[in-house]
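Posting for a labmate who doesn't have an account.
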Amino acid sequence: MLRTHADDTISINQNRPTYAPAQSICRSVRGFETVDTYPIRSPLAVADFLAPIVQGRGFTEIGTRNGDIMGCLSHFAGRVTAIELDVTYCRKLRARGFDVICRAVETVTPEEFATAEGDVYFWWPMWAPRQNEAWLRQLISAHQTNGRPAMAYIAHDTHWAPDMATLRRLVPHYRARNVTRLFFDEGDSSGHGRPGRWGVFHLAAFELGPSVGLPTWEGDAELPRRWREGKPAESEWLDGFCAVTESVGSVS
């Protein structure tokens, strides 16, 4: 059971498959409405997974767009902060009452991360080959400096080849605590060249804090050149289905 800031009790059915179509605890939160749809945003199954983790803690989302995931989690977290580059989204997020650092995450200082009280971080980046490792290294370094222990959850979509290639590299090199697979189904319609609004999200969890070491830069030399030099629109969605996937780390 979870309790919202409005003192509502939200029941978490541990037996409900995460792939049950169009279902989420977010739908039970008073006043919650989505603005975007998957894959413009992460599936709501991510919020279902993170809600018990962020209860009463600080939550920071990097690249939140209109703030659907953060909007749901704001009812449970002690504090939420968005790090968003797009000024238009920043205005919308502030209008919804969220704290916003409106600039590129690469410019955020260790002191600002500490002020944002980011106990739990989450992101699903636009372009994993260029962003995932760079952002993770930045957070490891920042929390070495500010001394705050935290966790970073990085999302990887099974249908998106660059995501999965990055996942297989980061998990062993940065010693992920675990990789949780979230099976989801937000409806049977397809969009953005994708097979449909269903699939498997892998959330890789990484510890942050003063005692966490910073490994050597893994780099992108092993990634295909078209990913290192290309853009997201030039990649392709992978065919797939909700089923058991190859293990890339310990599973929670």
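Reply:
Got it, the structure tokens are right above this. The chain has one domain: 20-234.
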